[in-house]
Amino acid sequence: MIRRISKSSFNNKGSALVMALVIMTILIILGLAVATLSLGTLLSNTEDAENNEAYYAAEAGVNSAIEQIKYEASRYYSAMLVSSGNDYSLLLNNFFNNIKVNSEAYFVEPDISGITTQTTFTTGAFDPVESICEFIVSCNATSPDGAGYVIDGKIYIKKIDVNASGGELILVDNAALIAGNLLNIRKNCGFVINGGDALVKEVIYDCSWVPYLINGGNLYITPSIGDSVTEILNYTSYTDPDMTNPDTVVTSHTTFNWNNIPPSPISIISTPGADIHVNSCIITSGVIHSGGDIHMNNGIFTVDLYSDGDIHINNCTINGNIYCRGNFYGNNAVINGSVISEGAVDWHNGALNGSVYGEYGVHIKDASGIGDVISPGLVEINRTAINGGLVYSSTKVLVGDCSIKAVIYSLGDVEINKSMSIQGAIIAKNDVFYNKNNVYFTINYSQQIIENILEDTDYSFFSPVGGAQNTLDSGVFVSQEIAPIGRTN
Hints:
This protein is of the alpha/beta class. It has helices at residues 7-81, 85-93, 95-106, 447-455; strands at residues 116-127, 132-142, 148-158, 175-185, 190-194, 197-205, 212-215, 219-221, 248-250, 254-256, 266-270, 276-279, 282-283, 286-290, 294-297, 300-301, 304-307, 311-314, 317-319, 322-324, 328-336, 339-341, 345-352, 356-358, 362-370, 373-375, 378-386, 390-393, 396-400, 403-410, 413-416, 420-428, 432-434, 440-445, 477-487. It folds into 2 domains: 20-162 and 473-487; 175-467, no CATH class. Strand 1 (116-127) and strand 2 (132-142) form a beta hairpin. Helix 1 (7-81) runs antiparallel to helix 2 and helix 1 crosses helix 3. It is flat and about 120 Å long.
């Protein structure tokens, strides 16, 4: 029997097939959409994970860098505590920069699998009043696909002069000469001591006879004698004069002479960088404060001088004290007062009836009437009469052809370049030596000069500020902070 299929049945099956195809298409589209969404989520999660890894790597780099700076600061302070003289001065003066350089040199980037970091160190703002410096670190972390993150950090560290003890000059009884290391006597050289002892770690000489004579005392070999010679210099910068109502204010380089000098008492001030020249006139009283240099020539000036630059004194008389933040240059002049320079002092020909302080050294030649001479740097004195109580250097004293009534005291060497006579003593933490042949010196030991120095209450150079004692503790690390900067791409 032949079976017949009706048209209606065929149509129903065709509709079902079409519906199935539509549903399958919709399901495929939905599946693709879900797959795309899932892949996007997966990629997003992967990117977030990589960003998180970069973030944590950058954070680790900054934290490590801050700890490295703390370590280097602690190590630096340890070096300062066992240093003295010029070595200590160099450490103190280069405190912040050296800590930065050491931190960069010894820092190791964090080892995080697949992540690279680059950390930089810089010094930022400096507070000169509190002596606090800002150290800035920045770490840029990058993941394998280039995703990156940057985090910055800061730490504030205080510089403390740990060697500023407040000043107590300690001298060994009856010691006319101390060489904490070597007393080196060259060929055809020698010395005489009258009334005191020579204490040295070692003595050598280049001749077949004993080239020294000690009258009323002895030479003692004392290996630890250098420990008695200690750094006590604690000079702090001078303050500017009170000139809130000056008579004359100049804003450019200005020259004053007999024709235009204001009547005494004068009160002249200049703006930063404006030099003041005073020539061929008389000032009977007053103050000059220059924001630039000061030049004083050919006159008699009873005046205190303050300069933010250099001071030049030539062919004149100054009755007053001189303060400069630059260098001081004096030639063929008389100064009845003291010279305080935060630069170097270079003095030739004349008389200076006061004391001299030069932050970066003192050079005096062909002068007389000098009082105390004090510097952290080299002190060089030739053909000069010293009438004060102390010639003091944290570095070295080079002296010769002088008549000295003082104690020569050096945290480094004392070098003798010409014959001379001393009423007082020579004290050196390191060597006492001659730099040429045929040089002799005589020390007439004076206990009275020693006592005058020890009893002098006017040594502001050896006084702690406000009677305070500098201390070193965790307070040198003032504060620190970390700040996320953000993604780099």
